[in-house]
Amino acid sequence: MTAADIVMPMFGQAMEFGVLVEWLTADGAEVAAGQPVASIESDKATYEIEAPVAGMIRHRVAIGAEVPVGDLLAVIGGAQAAGAVETPAASAAPALAPAATPAPARADGRVLASPRARELARAIGVDLAGVTTARADGVIVAADVERHGAAPPAPSAGTMTPLSPLRRATARRLAQSWTQAPHFTQMIEVDASALVAAQAAIRAGRLACSLNDILIRAAALTMADFPDLNASFEDDALQPLPDIAVGLAVATEAGLAVPVVRNAARRSLDEIAAETRRLIDLGKQGRIGAQDMGRASLTLSNLGRYGVAFGTPVLNLGEPVLVFIGAIEEKAVGIDHEIVLQPRTMLSICYDHRVVDGLRAAQFSQRLKQRLEALEDVLPGETEPSPTEPGGARFADGRVKLRLGEADLLVGAKDARLLSIAAALAALTAELPKLGPSARKLRGIEIRLEDGLAATLLCESEAQVARIGRAIEAADIATYSTAILRAELRPARGGGA
Amino acid sequence: MRTISYGQAINEALAEEMDRDGDVILYGLDVAAWGGIFNITKGLLERFGPERVFDSPISESVMVGAGVGAAIMGLRPVVELQYADFILVAGDEIFLKAGMWRYMHGGAFKVPLVVRLPSGATGAGPEHSTCPEAYVMHSPGLLCAVPSTAADAKALLKEAIRLDNPVMFFEHRRLYQKRDEVPEGDVTLPFGKGVIRREGRHVTVVAWQYMLSRALKAAELLEQEGIEVEIFDPRTLSPFDSGTLIESVKKTGACLVVEEGYRRLGVGAEIGAILMEQAFGYLDRPFRRLAIPDVPMASVKPLVDRVLPSVEAICDVCRELAA
């Protein structure tokens, strides 16, 4: 049986607590691995948390609970046996006595509660003295604490509802940004044909990145064109920001993270994709740390999948620009006196008026629109020289690229383990030790886990490619041959230096 | 898959291991000419001859003591004690020699001894019908197997014979006729790996051998009330698979042990202590035990029924725990 604890992840450097906004699955429900199970709110955004393994989920905190980072949210038990039929009777929890009576007061003033109930109460900050139980023995159990935590606070006239420290901090930061930074939002419509084409390429596996990676790169390149915008207004002066960092606040199918991609303008699309995947992976593990969070030059907010067309965003505190991307929708537009259908999307770009005036902002808005419509310098072009030095190993298009010389051996596989095998076989090939320094770099290869995997081994000669190809086809890997999709020779780009 | 009885499965395990390894010998009261008082060792004398299958005099101390010596000298003896209760007659040899000598002598030799122990309430009273696993579990150096199905009995006995440390192998007499699917061929099971016999999310019930069948029956009844019982069969008590149990308790928050031994300091007491030490924060209900009350085991059937944990009692405790 596999089981796993789901704990409150750390989404930002200053995050100490998160608030459980919503359970997306019922207590006791069977969940699949990767299924979103809970909605969590930090001071930055709301995130969905996914089930790390399949099994039955047991909630450990109630909706609205403020949970310290690292504390238990839920437990997933082992999966039900395959084919087990759940009868209606079996799925119903045992009925509780209808009327909850307060736990009998004891002379010594102590409250009786199970260890699990005590842990839960501590985690969600519930005072057990106020919790009631219907149990005959008067012992408060976890379900009693959950019910208590879920019950809405009794709204008595004239009493205020105090906010949690987390909610207070969020409110303070938003109010600070809203009141200090004069916001203005420019809305500009974009022909999304190129973006839709890129999306299709992504789906077809020809482009190993996400749409958000494209948006990040486009926004970063545009910011690089407007260095005067990359600043924060502080103490009546503009403080230049150290680099072009792009924050990304997006709810995705794959769960939620707010990665800050640093140095985004200087990274290739592949590198941005690698970085966001790394950050999203960290997010899934709840391990996004301070070094990956913090102030960005601009933040992207992509709520297109919810059908939101445009917005009037609030800037993140201290950031000059926020780009809100709306849903891509097919619209009738007039082109050359003809009405044609075209995918369109609206950018709602919010600026800090202390940093930028309306004209300069309009130039930025226009440049970003043009860039997204053309995607010329955003997507990797066929003729674009490879920026990596020969002999180096790096990521590209989500595939593992091993640069050894002039020819590529591309190996696609269904499973990341196969890529490990392929890389290991390559490393074991007798030719490789002769390569000297580059052979050592082989060991630095990192294998990514994702759909549409492929490994690219770049070799010095066609003969070497053939040898590695034979090694991959030979021996143990033969048992995986159905899983290996292709092994083909491609000319290397850029040539050997 | 073919279906054979628990008793036949044990016979097969003995025959296969004796066939495989010439060092395996079998002796005990009436195991040879008679074929065992429960008919378990039938045919083995004919097949393996009187040098490897023989009857012994009525002295449990001598039987086990000889086994310890033979094991130290390189044989793999399987000794049948006829009634598990007799481990106390052979106590010095079992607890202080078999269990401890390998340690005491710095590992100078191995003690690959198996003692077969037919156990269980049959109305034969306190000296001939108890389940004394707790004594074995308590004492260092002894392994303890409690197979609940024919397949487990065969696989665990084969494993027991191959292990280099002494195994107390409990065979429940009320299971001997029970038929199960048993795979053909050389199948063994590791010690210390239990199995979830039924999945559920409200209460974890730990049970083995005869009590397992009662727990499964109770779980069926409770399912109609909407109470889902998860049933864990540890298969071996030493070593005990606490990992699987704790994973189950993490899910259910409640645990009941149903055992056929005496309650005080019984197997359930040890399991409860394991949970307190290793799964305290996951317990949402008091740990519970059902066992034989701390009075000598009954000798007549109506009283035996009275002291054995019943299906109804299991249902009652599970209802309390699930409420």
Automatic annotation (TrEMBL), chain A:
Domain spans labelled Lipoyl-binding: 3-77
GO molecular function, one term: acetyltransferase activity
Enzyme Commission code: 2.3.1.-
Protein name, per record: Dihydrolipoamide acetyltransferase component of pyruvate dehydrogenase complex
Membrane-traversing stretches: none
Domain Peripheral subunit-binding (PSBD) span(s) in chain numbering: 112-149
Name of the top EC class for this enzyme: transferase
Signal peptide: none
Gene Ontology, cellular component aspect: cytoplasm
Keywords: Acyltransferase, Lipoyl, Pyruvate, Transferase
